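Dihydrolipoyl dehydrogenase
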Amino acid sequence: ASEASDYDIVFIGGGVAGYVGAIKAGQSGLKTACIEKRGTLGGTCLNVGCIPSKSLLNNSHLYHQILHDTKKRGIDVNDVKLNLAQMMKAKDESVAGLTKGVEFLFKKNKVDYIKGTGSFVDEHTIKVNLTEGGETEIKGKNIVIATGSETTPFPGLEIDEKKVITSTGAIALQEVPKKMIVIGGGIIGLEMASVWSRLGSEVTVVEFLGQIGGPGMDLDIAKQSQKLLAKQGIKFKVNTKVLKGNASGDGVKLDVEAAKGGKNETLEADVVLVAIGRRPYTDGLGIENIGIELDERKRLVIDQEYRTKIPHIRVIGDVTFGPMLAHKAEEEGVAAVEFITKGYGHVNYGAIPSVMYTHPEVAWVGQNEAELKSAGVNYKVGTFPFTANSRAKTNLETDGLVKILADAETDRILGVHIIGPNAGEMIAEGTLALEYGASSEDVARTCHAHPTLAEAFKEAAMATYSHAIHF
Ligand code: FAD
Ligand code: NAI
């Protein structure tokens, strides 16, 4: 490689972890390159994840609300029609705007964007198979692997993104399927079930566990969420295991059985969405050429400063430990660069919020009741329902509650769990409280504007150490 292709730092993968890290590195004065093979920056999140799914969730919710929830508000509407092609176009435009925005930020921060697939030749050298043809080699003093994750396949069901789909197919269907089955009642399953059920599909979610929502969601909240989603028309089969599938005919057939042994049945649908989790992605990266370690779940093994056993090679985002969330990946991008430039960095893994963008939204941060119980922590619970919140009442959106868990002795907040309107925005306050080590009394004594949904958060905090006023 020539002198010109030597970099202080090279990111492999231009997803949220890699692109944020690259911008931070550029801002810190490092000579920076980012290799991305997709053709656009932003990774799973911007191209086929967070952003397109939220566009469809928002617009399908509006459509559903206009169909079912306007009369009592004094709005009569007629002749409401779905224009799915336009809904998809609006989604594609949001995605294109944001991915181009990242490209602009690369230029602004002097990051070299190399389009192609990177693979390790040795500990400092990466060969790039260029998208436009040909190949090049670049060297990095530091290298950061940020290659993300992919859908975990369901054995025996081949993905064609038409009849048997992953989330990538689910954000791009060209017509509303008559019947859809979702394997896995985690966050992807429930968000996509919401979209297609609102648009008119008959959706059944099959979940292996007794509880929907995936890892981390508090049981009380998960139960409420399931009840509210069922009211919207989504059918649930919990405690149910999918044994095998067959997509050879017109539709797809799934053999399922009760998880604890028992009844077998065959379910049929036009489309089946596989949403049983995601797994780290390292295909074609050539890690065998440098001998870094993977754990039993194929996550790249790192220390607290994101270093592999080759210390100048670090790993961030979905391809390593921790929750597979965009904001976690982003925090790691910044921290990894700070470890290099300053010698210290910071991500508080105890205060990473999770949001499920269904309606109502579900959001949480910190520990849930089951986790506190199994850790033997003595805790108090304060709850406040949105039925008693003035803004929720005026908005005619009273489903849900705020639940705060605090240490019984010190009153320090240990977990915040919300189901309700705008829960995803409100959780920022809970996250800040956790980050600052606030007590529930600290929050309860903070003046909150009236009338806002956030007052429910303040009153749940009051209920944790004393009594709520309005309930
Ligand atoms: P990725 O975003 O997967 O980026 C990795 C990039 O590396 C990819 O673009 C890939 O093309 C590239 N790459 C891989 N190998 C190579 C190579 N050898 N050479 C060059 N490039 C390579 N998270 C949230 O926080 N909020 C949400 O609302 C949310 N919604 C989601 C919805 C869906 C449908 C899905 C699937 C995920 C969602 N997520 C959400 C999760 C989020 O998308 C991920 O946590 C996030 O994208 C992880 O970022 P990353 O940079 O680690 O990996
Ligand atoms: P998940 O881990 O959240 O949920 C998978 C669900 O499938 C679990 O409830 C599991 O019990 C169930 N399951 C597994 N095998 C099964 C089987 N054979 N039959 C029936 N059920 C089975 O994974 P999901 O939903 O695929 O999401 C992947 C990742 O993407 C998550 O880690 C999530 O953090 C991220 N994501 C985040 C979003 C957000 O923040 N809003 C949105 C979408 C995805």
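thats it. The two ends are 69 Å apart (CA to CA). The chain has 13 helices and 21 strands. bye
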